[in-house]
Amino acid sequence: MQLLELIETTVVGLGYELVEFETSPRARLLRVFIDRPESAQTDKRGISVEDCATVSSQLSRVFMVENVDYDRLEVSSPGLDRPLVKAADYRRFAGQEVQVKLRVPLGNQRNFSGVLEGLKEEGGVETVCLRMNETLHQFALENIDRARLVPKF
């Protein structure tokens, strides 16, 4: 089983969602970002230190059993500026303000900010819809390099 699959299986098995997984060169540092799944979002609680400790403890045990060689494991919440990684994230956070960076510019512009209108699928192509002022922009999901929620205070 690959490392990503191992981590995702463990995190999901504990009742959390794997948002992102990062490694340092040579995989000495493993950084895991977790969130509550959409189905558990009714109380609007975020990820607590106890949640991170639970996942960290379980992953450490799994890594020992699976002989995963690493120096340091960090488990964290994705933060207020949560990245949008999967197609489901674009559906889940529709109506919220986001920042999007494209791989290939649209005209001269690569960075966009606006309200996420959601994700639609036409002819097998997933398209992200973003409203900037009164203009609706549409981007192919595969052209999005990075997307993050814009925190509101």
Write the layout of secondary structure elements.
Elements: H1 3-13, E1 17-23, E2 29-35, H2 49-65, E3 72-76, H3 87-92, E4 97-106, E5 109-122, E6 125-132, E7 135-140, E8 144-149
Parallel strand pairs: 2-3
Antiparallel strand pairs: 1-2, 4-5, 4-8, 5-6, 6-7
Summary?
With 153 residues, this protein is of the alpha+beta class.
Properties at a glance:
single chain; 153 residues; alpha+beta; GMP Synthetase, Chain A, domain 3; SH3 type barrels; five-stranded antiparallel β-sheet; three-stranded mixed β-sheet; 8 strands; elongated
Mean pLDDT: 91
Sheet with most strands: strand arrangement: 7-6-5-4-8
The shape is elongated
Poorly predicted regions: none
Instruction: Determine and state the CATH class of the largest domain.
Output: Alpha Beta
Radius of gyration: 17 Å
